[in-house]
């Protein structure tokens, strides 16, 4: 029997469910249904974002914002913006010219449910919407804060972040990467956006430098741990559990943490990273326990 | 004999050449060559932007900025950002799943010169870079100005702008549009970004409301005139002159201004729009003569 995907503790699960609920409502509000002639674009944007995601990045935005007493309505806007960037990258990564994935979160990928052109445009429009949201005064009254959010998200998402990481990932299908390059690839492809999600709370809350630094360090270790466990899940799980095509990395001949260091060492590495990420949060004393619990959950998750 | 593509007056041509030169240098500086393993991404970004474009949008940014004494170095950053968005949209529009164009500006389209995946990512990264540039303090010391630039560019480029317009354009291959819908499509697909290019000078220069309004009105008429003449050129020119596949709209069964109102009426409409656009600039007395000349040039251009 496949393990339940609900393996977080009841307390953590409840907070995660709250975030999922809140961010889904925000997304639906930011992407209202429409009967304009170009409606398929907005339907695809909704389809690619309102699809039962775990909302890890929104969770990080909400929890780090809460540390500094940031208003939840504002934090939720930033959470939605980060999720829009994450979802756009999934929509584009799934395209036939990229990873050619048919399934995403147990449902047909956006380009399968609509068509390739609509999926490309939906991704483009989601990325653009993220910046529109962050630059809006409703996100924060201080334009310095808004500019910093825009700038940091752009850096995490562009050629030296998400896009560069995906380029490396495609190159990795035909080249063998060493551990250093795999780590760099993952830092760019997943790590930087996860770091931004954690730093966003500090930016919104105008946190001091040491608190901000602690969250970035936490995020860096957490992001890498997340990716290592993703590689482990890719070889261990089936599509029914993860809701996406599995074993694809091996089939595509991609170098992963597992293919490079072996499954046992990968598991040890993930555990070490999680311990390290938790240690960075000691600066917050008892106030960051949920973030600590989340880090431990990364090791136990099945999806 | 095909008419020369150089049919602007010597004075206008000189200013356009200056802008082309300046913005090309800015683009090259913002997109330096690299020997990182993900270099193909940056090569494709350079290929898709440093390809002999007319730089109409940068020209509008530079000329409207000059009206308010904006520092040219700053204006050139905004000009490059607008051009990045324009070029990203061309790279994505040319993809097989979209307009399936092989040629762009007389050279293989980006997805032909590289591959589809790299072209998609290069477009994504260019769009992202535009927002990174605008949010940078080097673009303007006032974060209010930077936020407004980000917000206005995002609105011009997203689901209610560029992306929505391209969606409509694709739908138009299978549906017949009336003149109102064609106008709306063109306003979204081309007009809004041209409007932003003109408004950018006013935003950077903190212009008063009536000056800003005049430039937006000028841009709206100019953008529509530009699109009407584009449709006329599509049926009149050959690939050798325009440097792109021609007659494609008719072949794709798309409704255009020409297919809806006929070529003669389309020409009259373009002339009327240009006269109208020029009239909006009277508020600047003699100081906007280059912008007026540009509007007249739109009627005469052959590419």
Structure characterization notes:
Two copies of one chain form a homodimer. By secondary structure, the first copy, chain A, is an all-alpha fold. Chain A has a single domain, classed as Farnesyl Diphosphate Synthase (Orthogonal Bundle). Helices cover 69% and strands 1% of the residues of chain A. Chain A is built from 15 helices and two strands. Chain A has a two-stranded antiparallel sheet. In chain A, strand 1 and strand 2 form a beta hairpin. In chain A, helix 1 packs across helix 4 and helix 4 runs antiparallel to helix 6. Chain A is globular and about 50 Å long. The interface between A and B is large, with 53 and 53 residues.
Number of strands of chain A: 2
Content-based structural category of chain A: mainly alpha
What CATH calls the topology of chain A is Farnesyl Diphosphate Synthase
Q: Categorize the overall geometry of chain A.
A: globular
Q: What is the domain total for the residues of chain A?
A: 1
Task: Provide keyphrases for this structure.
homodimer; 303 residues; mainly alpha; Farnesyl Diphosphate Synthase; two-stranded antiparallel ribbon; 15 helices
Quick summary:
Residues 1-5 of chain A have low confidence and may be disordered. The first copy, chain A, has helices at residues 10-30, 39-49, 56-67, 72-93, 110-113, 116-134, 143-157, 162-171, 179-204, 209-236, 239-242, 248-251, 257-261, 263-279, 289-300, and strands spanning 103-104, 107-108. Chain A contains 15 helices and 2 strands.
């Amino acid at each position: 029997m496949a393990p339940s995907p609900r393996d977080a503790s009841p307390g953590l699960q409840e907070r995660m469910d709250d975030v999922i609920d809140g961010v889904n409502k925000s997304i639906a509000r930011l992407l209202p249904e429409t009967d304009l002639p170009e409606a398929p674009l907005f339907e695809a944007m909704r389809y690619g974002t309102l699809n039962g995601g775990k909302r890890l990045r929104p969770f990080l935005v909400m929890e780090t914002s809460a540390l500094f007493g940031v208003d939840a309505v504002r934090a939720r806007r930033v959470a939605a913006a980060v999720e829009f960037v994450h979802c756009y990258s999934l929509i584009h990564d799934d395209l036939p010219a990229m990873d050619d994935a048919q399934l995403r979160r147990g449902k047909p990928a956006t380009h399968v449910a609509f068509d390739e052109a609509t999926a490309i445009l939906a991704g483009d429009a989601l990325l653009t919407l993220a910046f529109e949201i962050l630059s809006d005064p409703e996100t924060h009254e201080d334009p310095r804060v808004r500019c910093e959010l825009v700038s940091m998200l752009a850096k995490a998402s562009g050629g030296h972040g998400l896009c560069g990481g995906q380029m490396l990932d495609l190159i990795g299908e035909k080249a063998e990467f060493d551990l250093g390059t795999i780590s760099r690839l993952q830092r760019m492809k997943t790590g930087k956006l996860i770091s931004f999600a954690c730093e966003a709370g500090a930016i919104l809350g105008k946190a001091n430098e040491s608190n901000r630094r602690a969250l970035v360090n936490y995020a860096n270790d957490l992001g890498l741990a997340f990716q290592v466990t993703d590689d482990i899940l890719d070889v261990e799980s089936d599509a029914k559990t993860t809701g996406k095509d599995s074993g694809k990395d091996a089939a595509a001949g991609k170098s992963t943490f597992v293919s490079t260091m072996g499954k046992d060492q990968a598991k040890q590495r993930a555990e070490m990273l999680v311990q390290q990420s938790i240690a960075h949060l000691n600066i917050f004393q008892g106030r960051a326990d949920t973030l600590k619990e989340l880090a431990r959950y990364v090791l136990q998750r099945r999806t």
